[in-house]
Amino acid sequence: MKTKKNLISFSLTLVVLISTPFGFTVLMGSEWIDWVFISSLIITTSIIFFNLSGDGLIGRLDKSTVQGKTGISAVIDNGAEIINLPFSFYVSLLFTIGSLFLFLIH
User: Fold this and answer.
1) 57 and 47 within one domain
2) For FRET with 96, which of 3, 9, 13, 68 sits at 20 to 30 Å CA-CA?
3) Taken in order 89, 95, 98, 99, is the CA torsion positive or negative?
4) Is the dihedral of CA 12, 15, 20, 21 positive or negative?
5) Rounded-to-integer distance, Cα 76 and Cα 31, Å
């Protein structure tokens, strides 16, 4: 079951990674290779962002601001960051690294 889920995740991730630069190409009137690295980097960053849980930088700043203004002690847990990276992240990361080499060669 897990391999079937990974295969679906792999396929969908590749479709998104390959088709997104085509959208930029049509909008900007340039070549696919010009946008493949930037779009894959944005997609990889988005995957990381949406899979973070816990208090991030904004949450910690907010708690420390409340503590500074009101004097109420807020618990700031610096070790609460939990990153559960899905299989699509690794696919996207490999594609991004490959697209970087293509971009540098081009």
Assistant:
1) no
2) 3
3) negative
4) positive
5) 47
Q: Which residues contact 106 (CB under 8 A, 6 or more apart)?
A: 33, 34
pLDDT of 19 reads 93
If you search the block for the tokens 């909008």, which residue do you land on?
Answer: 27
- The tokens describing 39, both together, are 């779009």
Report the alpha-carbon distance of residue 106 to residue 90 in Å, rounded: 24
Do you know the residue count of the chain?
106
Q: Would you state the pLDDT for residue 41? A: 94
Give, as one character, the DSSP assignment of residue 54: S
Residues 15 and 43 in one domain: yes
Task: Assess whether 30 and 17 both reside in one domain.
Answer: yes
Nearest residue to 36 via CA among 24, 50, 21: 21
Which residues are CB-neighbours of 64 under 8 A, at least 6 positions away? Answer: 74, 76
Q: Give every residue of the chain whose pLDDT is below 50, as ranges.
A: none
Cα–Cα distance, 75 to 7 (Å, whole number): 41
User: Which uninterrupted H or E stretch holds 102?
Assistant: helix 87-105
